[in-house]
Design brief:
It is built from five helices and two strands. The chain has about 150 residues and is mainly alpha-helical. The protein has a two-stranded antiparallel ribbon. Helix 1 packs across helix 2, helix 2 packs across helix 4 and helix 3 packs across helix 4. The longest helix is centred in the C-terminal third of the chain and has 28 residues.
């Protein structure tokens, strides 16, 4: 799933190497390398990285069914959540939250309403990513099944 999403998603770093051989706790690995040195990442790149993270879980659910999904994608979900959180809290990449940097603020300095909006925006980014990836993998299902 990860490799297919990486190859089909604009803004994604190119796939350098992919393996389906288990390595440690991972059942396979996809290594991506940027085309060159990068000092910062665009919105498009961050969305693409989040989508690649969702690729494994979405593929697992598609192939084995929701009731057979495992904990294997937990580190990918953690990484996708961190990206979404950074987009909203640190990079001002949320229209509803606005261009404000929250990571330096103490949680007591942020209102309950604002916390709800932040959580809602993070969840919306993650849900949107998972939906995009599910549609992409459904379209690319023959490649997934190879």
């Amino acid at each position: 799933g990860h490799a297919i999403v990486a190859m089909c998603t604009p803004g994604s770093d190119p796939v350098h190497k992919a393996t389906i051989m288990p390595r440690g706790r991972a059942l396979g690995m996809v290594f991506q390398l940027p085309d060159g040195d990068q000092a910062s990442r665009s919105y498009k790149q961050m969305i693409a990285e989040m989508d690649v993270c969702m690729g494994g879980r979405a593929a697992e659910e598609m192939v084995f069914g929701r009731e057979n999904v495992t904990t294997g994608a937990s580190s990918d979900m953690r990484r996708a959540t961190r990206i979404a959180r950074d987009m909203v809290l640190s990079h001002g990449m949320s229209d509803k939250v606005g261009i404000m940097e929250f990571s330096a603020l103490n949680s007591s300095q942020v209102s309950a309403t604002t916390k709800e909006v932040v959580d809602s925006e993070i969840k919306a980014l993650l849900d949107s990513s998972y939906n995009r990836v599910s549609i992409l993998l459904e379209r690319e299902r023959p490649r997934l099944d190879r």
